[in-house]
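Morning F.,

Quick status update on the modeling queue. The single chain you submitted on Monday has been processed. Sequence for confirmation:
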Amino acid sequence: MSYLGISIREALDKINAPNCGWVLPEVQRQYVWGVRNDSETYVCLLLDSLIRRYPIGGIVLWETNEKIPYRKFAGDYDPKSFPKLADKGLWGTSKCLVYDGQQRLQTLYSVLRHTYNDKILYFDVLFDESKADPDDSGFSFKSADKTCEGRYLRMTEIANLKCDQKVKVALEQRVLKGIGSDERQELLIRQNIGSLWEIFVDTNIKSIAYFSVRSNSSNELNEIFRRLNIGGVALTQIELVVSKIKAQKHDYEEKLWKLHDQIEKESGINFPSSAIFQFFHLMVKNTVRIDEKRIENSEIHELIDAAEIHKDGLVELFKCYLNGLFNINHASIIRSYTAIYPIAAFISERKAMKQKWRIREMPELEMRLINQYFLLSQYCEWDTQTMINEFTKLATEAAKRGEAFPLAAIRKFAMSKNRVGRISVDLLEWLPLFSSKILMPSRKYMFHEQKPHIDHIFPMKLEGKDDEYRRLVNVLWNYQPMPAEVNNYKRNRHPKEFFNSGDGRKYWDSYDFIPRQNSELWENPNIFVKYRKKLMLSKLEELYGLKC
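Structure tokens below.
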């Protein structure tokens, strides 16, 4: 069978339809267009390609009533939510499973029938292609609660209009009346509305090519799916392996999402489901490198079991260690997450051996070894694939023997791979946000637009100060995790004056490593920075037993 054509309106009506509707087989990856950089630009160019009648690639379907797990396309697209599997009772209904074309169809379905990242797609009816740059399209996204002037038409309105010439004429008259255009603009408006009508309302223009595969075997379709993804935006190795697992355990990926949600809820850290799977793979295959060709069928069941066996250790790491001990509440604070896999492995293996595995239960000496590894692995870049594999092996073997975390053996191996084995002042200054957090573990960062709130105790914009002063105070030793509101109070004020004022005195106890309010150290920022540096380095040794 060759490719057939279908209009945009007809394709949208097919998506999630109750009878032979277009839905997604569970083997499919999640929608990825929405989370890539400049996703809105790509979406606008996709619709512009339709207007220009450019090809946008074909759709591959399997029409079947086989009992196969599937999920529906999302309506309102939100990158933090994932469409769940349809109820098991619906798996045997007549349906068309989309094996290629999900990204394009999901995009069109959200922007033409629903919302996209809480935004609405509009088209500017005064867009003049002859005067536009090559990547200009006339399409743009605007907040769903924003009211736009009459020249901007909502694409959700256009794509749902009745295909009737009277409706088209009424739309043109409404727009022309609202804009009050001249003769040239009137022609432009009619041309643009005509183009929108032909592609998104009428059904005569078959903008999408689709191919229906005839087969009685899901294995054959999965092989077609694998081959389709060799070109274009190829599936990642993780997606390929998870697809294999889902063929035997249909809700496996949903378990990964659920664990991701639990970790984020209990720690504030967005740890991707792909990284969660990588950890499980490490525990089964003893490597962080994932290669679909090296996964044996027998190991599929081990990976399925790993999600149950090791999930508690992973949650304990995020909830009770990173967040519980350090108040780390955002993914950006930690430089390398693969470097902490050995800690999770150690916790998980202790649990499996029925030893004390909760962070709060571990002896102080053992916690000190774990803390030292955590800091050294971040500062000294102990995170190559070879290192993580070996560290995890050493950690799990130590746990099985009932021994403490094997820091000495890990450090020895790291140094054999030409990594330093101790922390220096330069390394602390290299990661100032992380350093501030571990040196002041009782403080919690507040975030705005993914950026942590940091107060410079001696303000960067202190009146009358030059670039040399700003370089002096823009260092770790002058940092303090504080809500942005405090910065607004003291942005241009000398700290001594601020802390002795009525509005500033109340914040005194929120600062660490500072001299008395009437100390002469406040008179000289250079001396203040050196004083605070000395106290912070002493704290490093006191808390973690590490010297610079």
